[in-house]
Design goal:
The complex is a heterotetramer, with two copies of chain A (345 residues) and two copies of chain B (331 residues). By secondary structure, chain A is α/β, with parallel strands linked by helices. Chain A has helices spanning 33-58, 73-81, 96-101, 106-113, 146-160, 179-190, 210-213, 222-225, 238-253, 283-291, 294-302, 310-331, and strands spanning 88-91, 137-140, 167-172, 195-201, 204-205, 208-209, 230-234, 259-264. With 331 residues, chain B is α/β, with parallel strands linked by helices. The chains are: A alpha/beta (345), B alpha/beta (331). The complex binds thiamine diphosphate (2 copies) and magnesium ion (MG) (2 copies). One thiamine diphosphate sits between chains C (92-94, 142-144, 172-175, 202, 204-206, 267, 271) and B (30, 59, 61, 83, 87, 90).
Chain lengths: 345, 331, 345, 331
C-alpha cells in the first residue's frame, strides 16, 4: 500500500508540517558551493566531536559507554545530505555521527553525554539514546536491529498519512544476523514503504567480522530475497554515499519502496572506549585502513572546487564550536533528581 | 438506548469507532483484514476502512510491534493485534525495550501511543503454547498501561480511553469471554484507566479479579452465599494504573481479601496487590490475604488435566473459606 | 565447525546408538519393492488418519484445534523416506503427517489427540504437540518459526557429538516472514550443520497467500542470501521429494551443510477445522487443486511396478489399523488428574 | 586450600570445570571465544576447549536460545550467554514457550537441560536498554529454575548444580559484582537449588535479598546497628525453587520482614515472597512486610537520576525503619 493508492487523510506528525505529492522533486545538486562546505563542516564536526569527547572520557570527565563513529563520517553525512529536514533517521549505539549529520545541536548532544539537564533527553538517555525530534533524529536503539523496526514504523506513518517523507534506518553489519532485520526489510518491501535501510559495514560487529557472521558477506545481496534493490557503496566517499542515498530517497519518496544500501567503511576505533582491540585485530590493519580517510577523500575530490583556506577556516570554526559545546555541557546543571520519577507510568 | 452485544462485538465496535473518529488510528495483525480476525474481532473493518488501515501482515511479531512503535512515535495511533498472548514472547523487545521506554528515555520528546490487543487464557484446549495468561509480566515494565475488561460495556469504555492516552496500552482479552453477552449504552462513556468497579456488594470478604476471573468470582460468591458467606467482588479493570483505594475501602468493612487470576499464581500480579494491601492496609486485615491463581505448570491439553491446574470458581470459593478460617489454608 | 574438524568426543543421544563416519553411505534405492509399498502405506495412512479424525472431531468425539495435512502426504513421506531411523524431524502445528511418516505409533498419536493417558504426551500435548523421541520425532512447535530453532539445535548437537545424523525442520510458508527463520538458516549455514529445512509451501498461511507475504514468492531463492543451496521440488510427487530430501540429507550428513527445500503443494482443507475458508478461497480452486492428488500420482508412477491388488490390500490393512488406533484411543483411560502437576518446576 | 578470587573469575572457573568434566557442555554467545567475553567471563576457554565448544555466534538471541533448546533436547548441556539481560526480550519465545515447556508438554519425553547465563543491573550508566533487572518475569514461567548468586563461592557451587540438573536454569549475575572478591575452597561443593543462606544473624528484622542486594542489605545492617537495630540478612540464592522455610524460621524470631531487590518493585519477585510469607506465616508477623525495590521507571543514564530510582542500601535501611515503626511507611 503506498501513498498513491492510499485513501487515508493527511495527518501531520507533531511539530512537522505536512507536504503533498506536488512538493516531491529532484534532490538538490550536491555540488553547490554552500552544500560542499556544509558537507565538510558536518564531517569535520563529527571527527572533531569524537576526538574531543573521547579525550574527555579518557580523562574521566564523562561516564557511560562510548562508541566512536570516527572513520564513518562520510556515511552519516552523505546519507543525511540526501534527506530533507522533515525526513527522519533512526540510529544505533554508534549514533553521534548520525545525530550531528541530521542537524542536532552539538551543545545539547554533549550535555546529554554529560548527563546534564540541558541534554536532549534531560540526562535520561546518554550516549546511546540521543533523540532530537525537531531535527527528525528519532533516536538511537542500541538493541541490535531496533533502528530498523522504528524506521519501518515511521515510514508506515508517512505512507498512511500521505506525507512525502522518507525514513532512514542506520544499522551496523551486525544487525544482519538479527531476525528482525529480515522482518523489517520484508514489511517495508511488501508495503512499498518510503524507507531506506543503510547498513554501515565497518568490518566488525565488536570483534566479529562479517565473514564470521554469514557465509555470504555481501550484505547488499540480501535485498534480492525481498525483491528490493540492494546497493553497495564506498562508504569512504561522501559523494558516492550521497548519490546512492539520494536515489534511494527519491525512489522511496515517489512510491518506489525501500532500498538496502551497504556502505563499506571501517571502524577506526575500538568497538567502544576501553575495548581490548588487540585481541582481534592488528594495529597495522587499523593504520592501513586509516590511510583512506573520508576527510582526505573529500579534500582531494574538491581541491579544484574549493578555494584554499576555506576548509581550514571551517575547521577553526568547528573546533571552537565543539569546545563551546563541551563548555556548555560542563557548565550545565545536573538534572533535578525528582525528574527521574517523571515521564513513565 | 441500551443494546445487548457480545464481548467480541464490543471489541469490534470499539475498534470501528476508533478508526472512524481518528484518522491516526490503524490496525495491524494477522488474519484481521479480509478474514475479519480469527475470533471475528475485526470483521467488516477492512471493507469499511480500507486494507491500508486494517492491515494484514506476515507472521512477524517483533517487527509488527516495533513498526507500531515507530508509527506511533511519528504521530499515528496503531492498534497492534497479537493473535495469542503466548506470541507476545516473540515481540517482547519491541514492547519492553521500545514501546514502554521511548518516552522516558527521550526526555519526553517521543510518545508511543498504541494499543497492543491480545487474547489469552485456557478453555479451548489449544495446548501449552496457546493458553497462557501473561499480563503479570507487564506490571513489571514501567511505561505500559495494562487493561483487562470483563464486560462488553467495559471493553468499549476502556478501549476509548486506551486509544486516546499518550502511552502504550496492553489490552488483554480472555478468549472465553468473547461470546459472553452484556448490555451497552450508546455511546459508552470512556472509562478512565485506574478505576475499578464493585460488581457485588458483600460483608465478609473481598474478592478481586480482572477479566474472566470476575465472572468466576461472582459464581463463587453465589456458591458461598448458600454457605452463609457474603462476598464483595471487585473488578480492577486495569492493573496499571492500579485502583488500590477501591480495594482498601472494601477491606475497611470486609477485612478479608482473596485475589483471583487465571495466571500462574507464582510470580503473578496478585502478589503485587497483596503486597500493596499488606503494606498500606495491614491493620484492616483480620486474616492473611490469599491468592487464587493457577498451579505452576504449563496449561496441558487434556480437560481433566487443565481442570486440575487452572484457577477457577471452585478454587476461588475454597480460598475464601480459607481466608475466613472456615477451612485451613493449603496451597 | 563440522564433525570432521570437531574434537569433541562422541556423546550418544539418549536412547539412540551412535554411528561413526564409516556408516555414512548412499541412500537406499527408493524403487525397491518393499520401500514402494511402505511409501504408499504411509501416504495412505496419513490420508486415512486425517479423514477419519476429522470426521470424529466433527462428531464432537475429540476436542481442541485440528490442522489437517491432507494433500501434503507426499512431502511428509518423501522427506522421511530419505532419512534414517536416528535422524530427527521437527514439525509445526500441522504435524500429523510428519509424525506418521517418521514412524510414530498411530494408536498413541490418536490417544494424544483424544487427550488420553496412553497418548505420547500422556494427554499434556494434544494435536499440536505430538512427540515421539523413540522415532526421532522431536516434536511440533506451533509457534511459527519454532521448528527451525529446534532442528538447528539438534543438528548442532549431532555436529558437536560427531554423530552422522541429520535434523530436518518441517516449516510452513508462513514461517518465512518470521525473523527466526532467517536466523536459524544463517546459523546452520555458517556452522555447516547437518540440517535440512523443508518449507511446505501449501499456498496459504491461514488465509494469506505467499504473494501477500513477500514480494519474491520463490522461497527457495532465500537460500542464496545465506550461501546455501535452495531447491524447489514438486511436493505432490513423493519420489521427487524423496530425491531432493535424500540429496540434502546426504550433503548434510557428510559435512556439506544445510539445504533449504521448498516443496510446492496445496492445503486441501481449511487452515483448521472450522476455518471460514470461503472468505478467502473459492471452492473451485480447491477442487481443481485436489485433482492433482499425491496418491494418484504415486499410483500412476508405479502402475507398472506394483501388481494389481497390492495397493488395495494395503488400503484395507491401513483402514483397519486407523480404526484400531481410534478404538485404542477411545478405550484408553483419561490421564490421572494428579499428573497435571508433575513434570514442571 | 582456600583462594580469593573475583566473582567473574568464579563464573569463568565454573564454566571451565563444566566444560572439562562433561563433554556434553558447550557455550554459545557473542564475543566469548577469541575475545573472552565482554566481561572476561569466558577468557581463555576457547583456547582451552576449542572454538566449537566455546562458540561465538552472530547477534541472534532468539535462535541462539532456541538452538540451545534443540541441542539440550538431543542430549547436550548448553550454556547460552545473553550478554545483557535486557536482550532476553529478544529471545523470550525460546525460553518461555520452548525451554521451559518441552519437558511438560512432551509428557516427560524431552528434557532441556541448559544454563542461560546473563548479567544485568544498573551502575555502569549504560542507559535504559542495558540496565534492567528482569528475573522476576521468570518466576512466572513454570519449568525454569532462577538462580542469582551473590559471592564467588556461590557462583561455583550453584553453577555446578545448575549444569547438572535436568531442567533449564536462568543464571543471573549482577554486573556490579563481577569485580568483587571472595574466598573459595577447592573444590567448591555443589549447592542444591532452593537452599538459601543466612549471611548475618540478627534479632529485630529479617532482610531477604539475592545477588547484589545481599551486600547492600549487609551495609544497611551495619548502618542500622549504629541505630540499635539488629538485622538478620538472608541470601535466597535461588528464586525458583524458593527457600520459604528459611525465611519463615527467621521470622519466627525477628517477626519483621523486608524483601530487597534492584528490580522495579512493581510486579517484582518480592511480591511473591511477601504473599507466601503472609499466607503461611501471618501470625509470626508483628508488622507488615515491606519491599525495597526500584521505582517504576526505566533506568536513566545520569547518575543523579539513577540514584533517585534505584533500590540501594539507603532504601533498604529506610524500609527496615518503616517495618519496625521507627519511621512511618511511605512508598
Ligand atoms: C540485541 C542485542 N544483542 C547484542 C548486543 C551487544 N552488542 C552491542 S554492539 C554489538 C556489535 C554491533 O556491531 P554492528 O551492528 O556491526 O555495529 P557497529 O558496532 O559496528 O557500529 C553487539 C553484539 C546488543 N546491543 N543488542
Ligand atoms: C508466532 C506465531 N504467530 C502467529 C501464529 C498463528 N498462526 C498459526 S498457523 C498460522 C499460519 C501458518 O501458515 P504456514 O506457516 O504456511 O503453515 P500451514 O498452516 O500452511 O501449514 C498462523 C499465522 C502462530 N501460531 N505463531
Ligand atoms: Mg559493524
Ligand atoms: Mg502454508
Amino acid at each position: 500500500m503506498n501513498h498513491r493508492t492510499s485513501t487515508a487523510q493527511t495527518v501531520p506528525a507533531p511539530g512537522l508540517s505536512d507536504q503533498d505529492a506536488s512538493s516531491r522533486g529532484a534532490a538538490p545538486d550536491v555540488r553547490s558551493d554552500a552544500e560542499l562546505r556544509e558537507i565538510f563542516r558536518l564531517m569535520y564536526t563529527i571527527r572533531r566531536f569524537e576526538v574531543t569527547l573521547e579525550r574527555a572520557h579518557l580523562e574521566g570527565d564523562l561516564y557511560g559507554p562510548f562508541h566512536s563513529s570516527m572513520g564513518q563520517e562520510a556515511v552519516s553525512v552523505g546519507v543525511c545530505a540526501a534527506l530533507r529536514l522533515d525526513d527522519v533517521v533512526t540510529s544505533t549505539h554508534r549514533g553521534h555521527g548520525h545525530a550531528i549529520a541530521k542537524g542536532a545541536d552539538l551543545g545539547r548532544i554533549c550535555a546529554e553525554l554529560w548527563g546534564r539537564s540541558t541534554g536532549y533527553c534531560r540526562g535520561k538517555g546518554g550516549s546511546m539514546h540521543i533523540v532530537s525530534m525537531d531535527h527528525g533524529f528519532v533516536g538511537q536503539s542500541p538493541i541490535i536491529g531496533g533502528s530498523g523496526m522504528l524506521a519501518t514504523g515511521a515510514a508506515l506513518a508517512f505512507d498512511l498519512s500521505r506525507e512525502a517523507r522518507v525514513a532512514v534506518a542506520f544499522m551496523g553489519d551486525g544487525a544482519v544476523g538479527q531476525g528482525v532485520f529480515h522482518e523489517t526489510l520484508n514489511l517495508a518491501a511488501i508495503w512499498k514503504l518510503p524507507a531506506v535501510f543503510v547498513v554501515e559495514n565497518n568490518g566488525y560487529a565488536h570483534s566479529f567480522r562479517a565473514e564470521q557472521m554469514q557465509l555470504n558477506p555481501d550484505i547488499a545481496t540480501r535485498a534480492a530475497g525481498f525483491g528490493i534493490p540492494g546497493v553497495v557503496v564506498d562508504g569512504i566517499d561522501v559523494f558516492a554515499v550521497r548519490e546512492a542515498a539520494g536515489a534511494a530517497a527519491d525512489r522511496a519518496r515517489t512510491g518506489g519502496g525501500p532500498t538496502l544500501i551497504e556502505a563499506k567503511c571501517y571502524r577506526w576505533r575500538g568497538h567502544n572506549l576501553g575495548d581490548a582491540e588487540h585481541l582481534y585485530r592488528a594495529r597495522q590493519e587499523v593504520q592501513e585502513a586509516r590511510r583512506d580517510d573520508p576527510l582526505d577523500r573529500f579534500r582531494a575530490a574538491t581541491s579544484d572546487l574549493i578555494p584554499p583556506g576555506v576548509l581550514e577556516e571551517i575547521e577553526k570554526r568547528v573546533a571552537a564550536e565543539v569546545d563551546g559545546a563541551v563548555r556548555f555541557a560542563r557548565q550545565s546543571p545536573p538534572p533535578d533528581p525528582r525528574t527521574a520519577l517523571e515521564g513513565s507510568l | 438506548m441500551i443494546r445487548e452485544i457480545t464481548f467480541v462485538e464490543a471489541v469490534r465496535e470499539a475498534q470501528a469507532e476508533a478508526l472512524s473518529s481518528d484518522d491516526r488510528v490503524f490496525i495491524m495483525g494477522q488474519e484481521l483484514g479480509e478474514y475479519g480476525g480469527v475470533f471475528r474481532a475485526t470483521e467488516g473493518l477492512a471493507e469499511r476502512f480500507g486494507a491500508h488501515r486494517v492491515r494484514d501482515m506476515p507472521i512477524a511479531e517483533q517487527s509488527m510491534l516495533g513498526a507500531g512503535v515507530g508509527a506511533a512515535v511519528m504521530g499515528m495511533r496503531p492498534i497492534v493485534e497479537v493473535m495469542f498472548m503466548d506470541f507476545i514472547a516473540c515481540g517482547m523487545d519491541a514492547i519492553v525495550n521500545h514501546a514502554a521506554k521511548v518516552r522516558y528515555m527521550s526526555g519526553d520528546q517521543m510518545r508511543a501511543p498504541m494499543v497492543i490487543r491480545t487474547q489469552g487464557g485456557s478453555g479451548t484446549h489449544h495446548g501449552s503454547q496457546h493458553s497462557q495468561t501473561l499480563e503479570s509480566w507487564f506490571l513489571h515494565v514501567p511505561g505500559l498501561a495494562v487493561v483487562a475488561p470483563s464486560t462488553p460495556s467495559d471493553v468499549k469504555g476502556l478501549f476509548k480511553t486506551s486509544i486516546q492516552v499518550d502511552h502504550p496500552v496492553l489490552f488483554v482479552e480472555h478468549r472465553a469471554l468473547y461470546r459472553t453477552r452484556g448490555t451497552v449504552s450508546d455511546p459508552v462513556a470512556p472509562i478512565p484507566l485506574g478505576k475499578g468497579a464493585i460488581r457485588r456488594r458483600g460483608e465478609d470478604v473481598t474478592v478481586v479479579g480482572i477479566g474472566k476471573s470476575v465472572g468466576q468470582a461472582l459464581v463463587a460468591a453465589r456458591l458461598l452465599e448458600e454457605e452463609g458467606v457474603s462476598v464483595e467482588v471487585i473488578d480492577l479493570r486495569t492493573l496499571v494504573p492500579l485502583d488500590l483505594d477501591l480495594v482498601l475501602k472494601s477491606l475497611a468493612h470486609t477485612h478479608h481479601l482473596v485475589v483471583a487470576h487465571e495466571a500462574v499464581e507464582r510470580g503473578g500480579w496478585a502478589g503485587e496487590l497483596v503486597s500493596r494491601v499488606v503494606a498500606e492496609g495491614f491493620d484492616e486485615l483480620d486474616a492473611p490475604p490469599l491468592r487464587a491463581g493457577s498451579k505452576p505448570v504449563p496449561v496441558p491439553f487434556a480437560k481433566e488435566l487443565e481442570a486440575e491446574m487452572i484457577a477457577d470458581e471452585r478454587l476461588i470459593a475454597e480460598r475464601v473459606r480459607q481466608a475466613l478460617g472456615i477451612v485451613e489454608y493449603a496451597r
